[in-house]
Amino acid sequence: MVNIEAFYHSCSSTISYIVFDQLGGHAIIIDSVLDFSLPSGKIGSEFADKQIAFIKDNQLTVDWILETHAHADHLSAAHYLKSQLGGQTAVSAGITIVQQTFKQVFNISDQELLATGDVFDVLLVSEQVIKFGHLRVLVLATPGHTNDSLTYLVEDNAFVGDTLFMPDGGTARCDFPGGDAGTLFDSIKRIHSLAEGTKLWLCHDYQPNGRVLKYTTTVAESKRDNIHINDKISKADFIQLRQKRDKSLAVPKLLYPAIQVNIRGGKLPSAEQGEQVFLKIPIEQSLFYPEKSGKS
C-alpha cells in the first residue's frame, strides 16, 4: 500500500511529498524545500522540520531523498534532510549537464564543483528501479522543462515535478537552459500514456483565478482538460503556444540563489574569508558597457 503525505510551501507554491509503505516502515522524500528570504539572505528549516517531525512521529526510515530536477524557484533541503534523517540523495544523471552550464554562468571553479554529479549519492537514469521498504520506484525521464527532469512512478502514482500543472494551470515553461517545448510535448505524451486512473502529483500549484489549492489530478483529467496540452492540441500548436507564453514570463525571483544551491545537492557554496558565504547574481552590463550588447 502506498501512503502519501503532501506538504505545501506557500512562499514558493511548492508541494513536497513523503511517500511511505507503512507506519514504522520506509519512506522517500520528493522535492524538499528550504525557507529562504532573498532580501535578508536568511535560510531556514521550518518547512523541512515539519517533514522531519512527520518522519519521526511515524517512526519512518528515510531511504531516498529525491529531486525531480534542479529547481529554479526554491532551495532544496536535500542536504539538510540527509544530515537529520539519513538516506541517499538522488537526481537525474542529466544534472551533470545542468552543473556544467551553470558553472560557466557563475564562474564556479573545479575545486568548488566538479560537475560530475558527485554531490549526490546516486544519479538516476530512465527505466531504473529503486526500492524502499515494500515499494518500488520506476524512474522515467521526462525532459523539456529542463533536460534533467524526471517523473517517479510508485504503483499508480506519478510524481511529475514541474512538467505538468493542474489542468487549469497548463504546463511548465521551457525557456531555461536545456529546455525545449517539443521535448516537453513528447514527455507529457509519455506521462499521458500511463493508465488513465494514474494519479499525477504536482510540484507546484499557482491557484489560477484564486481557486483553492490543488496538487493532484489523473492522467484522464489531464489528457482531457489541460489548457496547454490535451488530446486536441497538436505538437506544432503546443510548441507555438509554449514559446509565445514563455516570452511573457518573468524570471523566477529565486532563480540564481536556487540554482547555485541545487546544483550542489542542497549545499551552500564554500565560505570565503571571514567564513561568510555568498550567492552570486550575474549582472546585465549593457547599460554601462554598450559594446557588450552591440549597442553604440
Automatic annotation (TrEMBL):
<dbReference type="InterPro" id="IPR051682">
    <property type="entry name" value="Mito_Persulfide_Diox"/>
</dbReference>
<dbReference type="InterPro" id="IPR001279">
    <property type="entry name" value="Metallo-B-lactamas"/>
</dbReference>
<keyword id="KW-0479">Metal-binding</keyword>
<feature type="domain" description="Metallo-beta-lactamase">
    <location>
        <begin position="13"/>
        <end position="204"/>
    </location>
</feature>
<dbReference type="InterPro" id="IPR036866">
    <property type="entry name" value="RibonucZ/Hydroxyglut_hydro"/>
</dbReference>
<dbReference type="Pfam" id="PF00753">
    <property type="entry name" value="Lactamase_B"/>
</dbReference>
<protein>
    <submittedName>
        <fullName>MBL fold metallo-hydrolase</fullName>
    </submittedName>
</protein>
<dbReference type="InterPro" id="IPR044528">
    <property type="entry name" value="POD-like_MBL-fold"/>
</dbReference>
